Amino acid sequence: MKKLLIFNFLILCSTVLFSQNFDKGLFKEKFIEAQYHIEFENYKLALPIFIELNKMDPENSNVNFKVGLCMIKSNIRKAEAVGFLEKAVLNVSPNYDDLNPFEKRAPVNALYYLGFAYHIAYKLDEAIATFEKFKSVISKKNYMVADAERSIVMCLNAKEFIGNKKEYIIDCLSDSINTPYPEYSPVVSLDESTLIFTSRRAEESGSIAESMHNEDIYISYKDNNGIWSAAKSIGTSINTMDHEASIGLSADGQKLFIYKSDDGGSIWMSEQLSESWSVPQKLDFDVNSEHWETHAVITAEQKTIYFASNRPGGQGGRDIWMCKKLPNGKWAKAQNLGAQINTKHDEDAPFIHPNGKTIYFSSDGHKTMGGFDIFYSEIQEDGKWSSPINMGYPINTTDDDIYFVTSGDGKRGYFSSLRENCIGEKDIFMVTIDDIQVESITVLKGKITIDGDEKLPSGALIYVTDVETGIVVNESRPNPRTSVYTLALSPGEHGKTYSISYSAEGFEPITATIEIEAGMGYQEIEKELFLHPINFESKTKGTVALSGTIKNRQGEFISATISVIDNITGEEIFTALTKGTEAPYYFVLQLGKNYNISYEAEDYLFHSENLNIPNKPEYSEIKKNIILEKIETGTKIVLNNIFFDHNKSILRKESNVELEKLYTLLNKRPELKIEVGGHTDSKGNAEVNMVLSKARAQAVVDYLTKNGINRSRLVAKGYGKDAPIAPNNLANGKPDLDGMQLNRRVEFKILDYTKAELEKVRENQTNTAEVETIIIDNRSDLVTKPVNYTTKSPLYGVQIGAFQTSLPNNDFPNVKNVHSFIDNDGMIRYVIGSFNIRSQAETLKKAVVEAGYKDAFIVDVNKEKKFTNEVVHEKKPKSLEKVEYMVQVGAYSTTITAQAAKSMVEIDGIIEKQNGELMLLTVGSFSNIESAEKLKNELVAKGVQEAFVIAFLNDKKITLQAAKEFAK
Q1: What's the Cα-to-Cα distance from 470 to each of 300, 304, 309, 589, 617, rounded to whole Å?
Q2: 875-967: which CATH topology?
C-alpha cells in the first residue's frame, strides 16, 4: 500500500512538473496530429511536428524515438536519426504505450532502429553491437530476430566491400535532371542520346499533397557536347492523375515500358510518335497478372522481356521472370529465372545489356551490404546464369541502390541512390567503370536522309538478317524525332555477316551487308542511309521487290496487316500495316526462300499467297494486288499454303503457318461454322481423286480439332475434280499445268455466321435519328442539326463548358469544332467530338486540356434524351456523277491518335467522313482539285504536315487517278 501511494505521488509530481513546463493541451494536440500521419505512413508530414515536440521536451525518449523513426521511414536524413535514437534507447520498456501522448519511454525496438541508423551512417561495429543487444532483450520467437540477424550479416558484408573499395568514379547528374524531389528509375537509349526517368515533383500532373506527389515521367536529351537538356514532362499522353513510372526502354529508344499502379501494379508500353509519345497500352500477354509487376525491360532484338513480379511459383518475394517471343509472333508463358538469380527475399529492376547475355538487377537477398544492392550475372553456354556478382562499393552503399542501366560499352552506368552531397532525396548518378569486361558487341547507327528533305515515312522498318542462317535477328525503326536508327549486332563466336534491309512505303529498298569480326570488343559503326522514291526502272541485283494494293470486293482500299513468314522455319520475317490508300505496299525479300505472305484486316477473311523465290541474282519485281473477302455466310477462300506430298493426305510441315492462321481466325470468331473442301485436278482416276480430296480436307479438320476447335463447327468435304477454278487442258488438248496446279487446292467456305445475323437484329432495334435542317444565317452551306440521340449506346464527347444562356460555338479560344446540346436540367453544354468508344474521347480530352481547358471532362451525350446543335457543311444538290475533292487532315479507327485529336481541336470546319473501318477528318469541299490543293498548301504552311487531297464520288472515296479519269 505504501509503494502504491509513492507511485501515485510520483505520477502526480510528474504531471505537475509537465504542466509547469509545457502547454499540456498543445503538446497533446500536436502529438495526436503527428501520430495520425504515422498511422497512414505519411512520415514526412509527421517529422516536423515531432521535431517541434522534441524541442519542447528534448529528453523525452518516446519523442526522440518518433523523430528517429520518421527520419528513417521518410528516406531523408537517415544518418541524422542516430542522435535521436541514442537518446531514445536510454529509457526503453516492453510496456511501451504507442498512442499515449504522455508516454515518455521508448519501445524496445528502438534498439533495432538505432542499429539500422548506425548501419546507414557506416558505424558498422556500433550497429552490430546494437543489433546483438536488441536480440538479447526480445523473445527469440519475435519475428524481428531474423531481421536483426540479417542486418548483422549485411554489416559484416559492408565491412568487407568497403575494405575492397572499387576505383569507380561516381557523379551526381546536374540540376537539369536532379531536383530537391526524388528522381529515380533512369532508362537510357543504346546511344545514350535519351534519358528518361521518374520523379515526384510538385508540378507533376498527379500532385495531391506536398509530401505525397504522384510519380510522373520526365525526359532529357543529350546535346553534341554531352550535356543533358533540362528535363521536361514526357507529356500528357503518358502522365496522368495516377502514378506512372519509367521502368524500361528499348535499345532504339522508341518503346518505353511504364509501371502503372492499376490492378495491384501492371506494366504498360508507349511508343515514340515524333515529338510526343503514344497513349500507353497494357501488355496483354503473360507479363501482367493479378499480382504485382514492378519492372520490365526488353532485349535489343526485342524478342525477350525480363520483368519483376511477386506472382506465385517463384522463389519468394519479388522475383525476376522472362517471356520469350515465339516464331509465330506470340509471347510464350512467363518463366522464372530460378534460384541462381532469385532468393526468398526481393529481386527487382532487371536490365539486360544489349549483348543479351549480361543481366543487372537489384536484390536484398543476395550478399548485400545494406538494403538493395546492384548485382550482375551472365548467361552461360549451357543456358544457365552464373552466380550473381555484387558491383561493390561505392556503387553499392549501406542504403538502397537500385535501377541500374548501362551504356552500350558497359563503361558507364546510371542508377538512383540516396546519398549525401547531391541535390535531393533520391538522385540519379552516373558511374564510370573502367575495369568491367563486356561481351563483344557492335552498335550500328546513322541518320536516314530522304531526297528533297521529305518527312520520314511512317511505318518505316529496318531488318537485320543473319546471312548464314537467313533468320531475321533484329528489327527496328528510325527515331521519328531525329531520323536516326540504332541497332545492336553480335559477332558470335567466329564473326558474322549481316544483311541490313530498309523497307518504307513508297521508297526504293536499301540493302547493305556488314561483316563483324569476332574478338573486336565494343565498337560503333556509323552508316548514313539515303532514301529515294520508288523508281521501278531501277534494277538492284540480288533482291526481289513485292508490291501491290489491298482492296475489298467493292474496290475500296482497306487498311490491312501484311505478314511475311518463312514457310520452312516458321519465322516471321516482318509485319507491316497498310494505310488503306492507293499508295502501294512495298517489300524487299531475300532470294532462295519460300514465303507465306498473309494479308489480314478486321472483319475480312485472311488471304495468303505462297511465294517461292529462286536463288538467282537477277532483280525481279512481283506485283500482288489483293482482294479481301468480307466475313459473311457463303464466302470462301483458297488456302494457298496447305501442302501435301503427291497422292498423299498427310500435311507437310510447311502447312503449319497457314493452319495456325485458320485456327486463330476460328478461335477469334467462335460464331463461325465452316466447310473445308478438298479439290484435285482432272488427272487420274475420278474415284481415287474423290477419296484423296476428302482425306486432305479431313486432315485439315483433324488438325483444327486437335488444337481445340469444336468439331461441330467443321465439315470436311471432298470435291475431287468436280469444281475446277481453272482449265485442266489447253485449247490443243494438252494438259494446262498452271491450271491443274490451281485446281489442286484446299479451300474453306463459311457455312454459317451467326454474329452477322445478331448484328442485323441490333441495327433494327436502334432507331435512326430524325434530322431537321434549319438555315441559321445567310450562308446556305451552314446549318444547325438538332439530333435526337437514342439511348441504345454511349456517345462520348469532351465537355469544355456549361451555361444557362447560349454562346456562339466559335466563342471558345484555342479550340475548333465545338457543338452544344441542352441537357435535361436546362443547361447548355458545349462539347467537342462524338465517339462510340470512350478511349477515343480520352485521347481528344488530352488535346483539349493542352489547349488550355484544364477542367475538361468526358460526357456521355446519350445517357439521357438530349440533342445537339452541330454546325456542319450542308452540300447543295449536285449531280450524282460529280467528284468532290477534300483535304484529309487525320483519321482514326477504334483508337484515335493524338495527332487526329489535335487536328479536331485546332483546325476549323472539320467534317467526318466514314470510309470503311476508318473515320476520315476532312476540311473543305471543292469541285476541282486545284482549289483543294490550294487549301492543302495553306494547311501545310500552318504546320499541318499530314494534310493531303482526297476525292469522293457518290460519298465513296476514290483514288485521285480515278477522279482524273472520271473528269475526262
Answers
A1: 19, 20, 36, 11, 16
A2: Alpha-Beta Plaits (3.30.70)
One-letter amino acid at 95 equals N
**Residues 487 and 443 sit within 8 Å (Cβ to Cβ):** yes
Residue 14 parent element (H or E)? helix 2-21
% of residues, the chain, pLDDT over 70? 82
Q: Mean of the pLDDT values across residues 34-58?
A: 93
434, 186 contact by CB (below 8 A): no
Neighbours of 622 (CB within 10 A): 15
Which residue, 667, 657, 603, is CA-closest to 629? 603
CATH fold for domain 169-203+211-432: Neuraminidase (2.120.10)
- Residue 757: which pLDDT band, with cuts at 50, 70 and 90? very low
At residue 3, does pLDDT exceed 60?
no
Q: Are 448 and 502 in contact (CB under 8 A)?
A: yes
pLDDT confidence of residue 800: 86
d(CA 49, CA 53): 6
pLDDT tens figures, 359-373: 999 999 999 999 999
Domain locations in the chain? 22-163, 169-203+211-432, 440-533, 541-622, 631-764, 774-872, 875-967
> At the top level of CATH, which class does the domain 631-764 belong to?
alpha beta
DSSP 147: H
Q: Say which residue, 612 or 31, is predicted with more confidence.
A: 31
Strands 593-600 and 561-566, sheet pairing:
antiparallel
Torsion sign, CA atoms 853, 858, 863, 869:
positive
Mind listing the pLDDT tens digit for each residue in 281-305?
999 888 999 899 999 999 988 889 9
Assigned superfamily of 440-533: Carboxypeptidase-like, regulatory domain (2.60.40.1120)
Q: What is the pTM of this model?
A: 0.57
Element (H, E) at 172: strand 169-172
Within this chain, domains 440-533 and 541-622 share the same CATH topology: yes
Give pLDDT tens digits for 184-241. 999 999 889 999 999 998 765 544 444 557 899 999 999 988 899 999 999 999 999 8
Half-sphere exposure of 254 (CA within 13 A, CB side): 21
CB 266 within 8 A of CB 260: yes
Which CATH number, 1.10.3720.10, 1.10.260.40, 1.25.40.10, 1.10.357.10, labels domain 22-163? Answer: 1.25.40.10
